[in-house]
Request: fold
Amino acid sequence: MMKKFLFLIILLGATAIQSSGQTVTVDASIDSLQILIGEQAKITLEVSTDADKRAFFPIYTDTIVRGVEIVDVAKPDTQYLDDKKRLLIKQEYTITSFDSALYYLPPMEVMVDGTVYRSKALALKVYSVPVPLDPEHPEQIFGPKDIMNAPFVWGDWYGVIASGILLIPLCILVVYLIKRAFDHKPIIRKVKVAPKLPPHQTAMRKIERIKSEKSWQTEQPKEYYTELTDILRGYIKERFGFNALEMTSTEIIDKLLEVKDKDAINDLRTLFQTADLVKFAKHNPLMNENDANLVNAIDFINETKAPEDPNAQSQPTEITIIEKRSLRTKIILYAGIVAAGGVAIGLLIYIGKELYNCFA
Reply:
């Protein structure tokens, strides 16, 4: 009975020891024990612990040991085991070396709940790159070559050339706009003016057109007399200064009698009376009557036209207008200076950078 009791105590103690020994396990492995200079290898650090515990992995800055550099540290990979009672955490470290040697990688330390656990030590053998030698031709082993200059290619300079060509007119435009903006000179414009003919000459030109068209010889006397009386009304308005266009024939005659003799106006009275009969009473005058009224119109213009002044100066055909530069024009000038100047500065910066990159 005593033997069975002792056996049970020993079994329970062994189980407790085994259970406590499996609480935290730390293991490290490397995927390649041998690499060439510059090649890379990966170290995998695995930690198995209870799910309610926190593990802190080692933090390396640049190297694990002298000569073995850290290239990359991956994010930890966590897996739950035994119905989420246990955790398996994996951390990968990518390493490399540029010196041929056999390196001893010391145990990696992991802290779990304030207790430090260590993995096993690792080793890494780094070989140099073999250089094939020809014993018979040792002179074929050459040192490093000098830096070679790239060949000239026109395609690399198209942007610089185009920018330089565009920069020249832009600079000229900026200088011109600045000069225009700050000269403060008035704007001088030349305006062509058609010389104004005297009233009698204007009326005679229109009558000559009627004569050339021979409109009074057609069977439309109303149009002929309407046009003829309109010419006379316009002449009277310009010559005597009252609005004959808005007056009746009788009112025009009465107004003219105040300023002219009756003999010059009698012929005009006969013409207006005939025109009123044609327009309002559908009177159809004879051919010689039409001719006589046209002559009466010409005689009236010639008898009443203003005398020409021999000392009068001819009217100019071109006048000069002097204006101050408006605010809107100034704003446009300043905006043009800013826009053109900005583009020019951008082109200069681009050309400078390209030349610096080429010759640096």
